[in-house]
Amino acid sequence: MNKYRRRTAFVGVGTLTVGLLLTSPQSAEAANLVLNPGFETAGGDGMPYCWEKSGWGDNDFDFTTTSDAHSGSKAMKVSVTRRVDGDRKALITESTTCAPVVTAGKQYDLGLWYKTTTPDANITLFRHDTTAGWQYWTDLKTLEMQGSWTQASVRTPEVPAGTDRITWGVSVYGTGSATTDDYTMDQVPDTLPPATCTATAEQCANGRWDVLPTQNPVRSMHSVVLNNGKVLLIAGSGNSQEQFDAGTFTSAVYDPVAGTYKVIPTPKDMFCSGHIQLQDGRVLVMSGNKAFPAADGSHGYEGYKDSYIFDPVTETYSRTNDLNDGHWYPSATELGNGDVVSFGGLREDSTGSVTAEYWSDAQQKWLPLSQVNQTWSYWGLYPSMVLMQDGRLFYTGSHVFGNNIPGTGSAIYDYGANTITSVSGLQNKDQRDQSASVLLPPAQDQKVLTIGGGNIDSNPDANRLTDVIDLKAANPTYTVGPQIPQGTVDLGSGPVAETGAQGKMYVSAVLLPDGTVLETGGALHNRANPVYEASIFDPATTTFDPVAADPEARGYHSSLFLLPDGRVMSTGDNPGNGTWNHNVSIYTPPYLLKGTRPTITSVIDNEWEYGDTQTITVDRPIAKAELIRPAAVTHSSDPNQRFVDLPLSVNGNTVDLNVTSNPNLAPPGWYMLFAVDANGVPSVAKWVHLQGPSALTTDTASAHVHSFADSLKGKVTEPGKRRTSQKVSTTISGCDRHYGTINVCVPTVFPSEVRSTTAARCSWLQQNDYGRLKVNGKDDPLRLDPNGDGVACGKGDVRTAKKKG
């Protein structure tokens, strides 16, 4: 039984009728790759030859071979008369005789004739992996209700590596019926010559970084790409005690086309807040910094309850109602209905918040505590919570500061059931501090990649680990991925090659329009030792390809994001000595150096609804199109980043794009629409608005949700006893506040190669440009001021330490 389909077993479904004289599988060049496309030849179990019954869930259904045919004497009718959940579908039989042979990297045009009495029907595709066997691939096209015979066609994505056959058919996932006939399947011919390099061979292979002549005017650590193509850069105090004390809080709006910045008045210290784009394109900003830690350890960072909305049109902030709790470093994830859930962070008293927050899009406010499901769990700081296709949340294990949550370090949270189920397999779960996690392209594949990380508290060498999880599995678990390629690291005397298991934390990762992932930036230790390395991860091959590295250090408080023109922008770096890198780097990926780009010449309608077929025109043939959600990134974290494939129906330069019916795959909001040619070269993006709950009316398709991750074997945690908070160390940031100003981070634990002596520690601080450090108070826990003159690592301190030793 196919675990991905959870289909009902039917007697004889997989058994071919003996003695039927039909042709063997056709070659990839055959005109029609579907055997028995009109159901004229009978098979077993009342089904036509080479067709099988399939589906799952609690529903009543019927499969009928009917004489109400488009051509010939037979058609296939699938009916659902009662439904709680699940679907029913008639598919090409999963066998070497019937399932069409395909070639990896190629695309196929699928066609059929249909009549429907329900809006809840679509073309569904499965593939045979030569290693993993048969598995669900994707939904391609929602079928509009039609009372007479109507032709539907759709183009598949490129066939993934390792796939040798596919099967497909029509799913019915609501009450009603779909009658189909005359299936066709043809391989799409190659239309483009190979790409021609327009730069040096090195640049065409590895891309190019350019440091812009104009610096970022603010110390921004939060970057949000707005639906007008500009970028909101939020600094707040910018981790500066001087600006905090003065009440000088800043943001800036960057215009990538003009190359200009506009500084924006900012009402509160949004340093280390949470943020997310609402479905109307405005930016919701939650919490921020109420207070910096005290040198005497009486309190740590404090988060306030305030919340604001930034309007891209007026470029101003306005206040919303308050959160129920303070949340310094909170998560923010949009749900399929346009609402937002938020977890984690530090409260107003510096303890860890165990309060989940819920923003109602309909009411435009944070709901009161009594209306929000609570498990009273502490998820840590910036916990990466990715929305799954069935509406649950996957906590990837990426977080900020120190150890991970107890248990396996990753979990699936079901908000409706209010349960947490642990997910196993994450490597070295307590050293994934400021790793990066991304939902890999396309979102329909439901695979997540987690990259690198370290631990600010224990301060080991950051690692090279990656982990991949398939959330379509019945019992998803992380599996070991390829290690991050090594680059060079500046240990204080200039870059040297990384060795052994050295990797990086503070990783940035961004989804690219060709379906790959760029990872770059990072550092080896807590706010020190920048790593210069970048690579592109290919989800199809599960491999990293090293590319050109950003010449600028990009550690703590750096961010990376995709621009609408297909380039990538990189900002920030805040070493432990308190300085800030205001230089901005732009990465031009190799795909922009392969010749002329395709152009989207028109978008017929930029207001889209779920299950729609939308039409665009292009200036030349394209191989794929997708929606990419614009970035809202900070501290290696953007859990809402996603790439949603749009299957094509092609008629020359007019292309119909088939929009998913499932808002959990593409939560409502503004997206960048890219068209990509067969060489992987993308167009400049057009902005389209995928509408939210109001678009999900009774006469449109409902979400076709497949049943995955439904056999979880991990420990299940029910809501615990109500509590106020989680105790958190005041040194959670890995900084010892006994030394220097609040801007400065002297590590509570030095890297392992630094001996625990005054001389060694002072030498390390000198190499990393810490300069003169005042000792705050009378305590000297790191023994940096043995002569007691109130200055750490002064001229007499090393001599005094040697005498005492």
TrEMBL record:
Residues 250-578 form the Glyoxal oxidase N-terminal domain. Residues 597-689 form the Galactose oxidase-like Early set domain. It comes from the Bacteria. Residues 1-30 form the signal peptide. Keywords: Signal. This is Galactose oxidase-like domain-containing protein. The lineage of its organism: Bacteria, Bacillati, Actinomycetota, Actinomycetes, Kitasatosporales.
